[in-house]
Amino acid sequence: MHHGFRGTSLLGAACVLALSGCAQMGGLGMPAADAAPTRTGEPASPECNPALGGALGALAGSMFGKGKGHLAGAVIGAGIGAFACIAYNYHARKVRDARSVEDQYRHDRGTLPASNTISAYQTALLPGETIRSGSKAAMQSRVTLVRGTHDAAPQLKEQLTLFAPDGRQLTTVTKDATAIDGTGEYETNFDFNLPKGIQDGRYTMRSALYMDGRQVRTNEVPMLVVS
């Protein structure tokens, strides 16, 4: 009974130490491109030192036990620290106006919808699906929104989740898509920097779009991480 409680407490300590190591430094988010009037960006997250975060996580993780347990705990802790260091910078901009989107919708469907409608949602990983650890990348989406004739402007959020090669969820972040405020086609970006030293392998990036609190679309993109 006491041993189980101690193991749980130390796992929490590993997480807290790893995260605190990342909270003390300043931004890994990619700088946004020149802002257009309809583009919104968030200030870069505080810079995270993956080596420091990983070292603190490994130190706390090593407290799990001795021998093989000691080494396993250090590896787990180091992994927590590295992935906790991923900082995301989110921004969006309109790339096609309401008139163009509505004309196309009428052409395809005959009439505009009564309710807010996401008519398209595509996602791609930039600069490609193979990313070197320690380098910058972006998850870019195209969202086409048609505002319903009987609806108020919807509240949209976009969520990005990273999964390990074995399927474990590593990180997730949700941002308000405040720039998406009416009919139009929008480009959204989650800019991020992969920490150096993370495990090579085939990861999965999942993007999800929420409208008025309800998940309406999802996309998954493979991401091959190489050293």
Structure description:
The protein is of the alpha+beta class. It is 28% helix and 37% strand. It has 4 helices and 10 strands, in the order αβααβαββββββββ. The strands form 2 sheets. A 5-stranded antiparallel sheet has the order 1-2-8-5-3. Strand 9 (201-211) and strand 10 (214-226) form a beta hairpin. Helix 1 (2-23) packs parallel to helix 3 and helix 2 (50-61) runs antiparallel to helix 3 (68-84). The chain is elongated, with a radius of gyration of 21 Å. The N and C termini lie far apart (42 Å). Residues 2-47 and 52-78 have low confidence and may be disordered.
Features:
227 residues, alpha+beta, five-stranded antiparallel beta sheet, 4 helices, disordered N terminus
Query: What kind of sheet is the major sheet?
Result: 5 strands, antiparallel
Continuous helix count: 4
Chain oligomer state: single chain
Number of strands: 10
Portion in helices:
25-40%
Distance between the termini: 42 Å
What fraction strand? Answer: 35-45%
What are the low-pLDDT stretches, counting only 5+ consecutive residues below 50? 2-47, 52-78
Listing every helix as H and every strand as E from the N terminus to the C terminus, the arrangement reads: HEHHEHEEEEEEEE
The radius of gyration computed from the alpha-carbon positions, rounded to a whole number of angstroms, is: 21 Å
Arithmetic mean pLDDT: 76
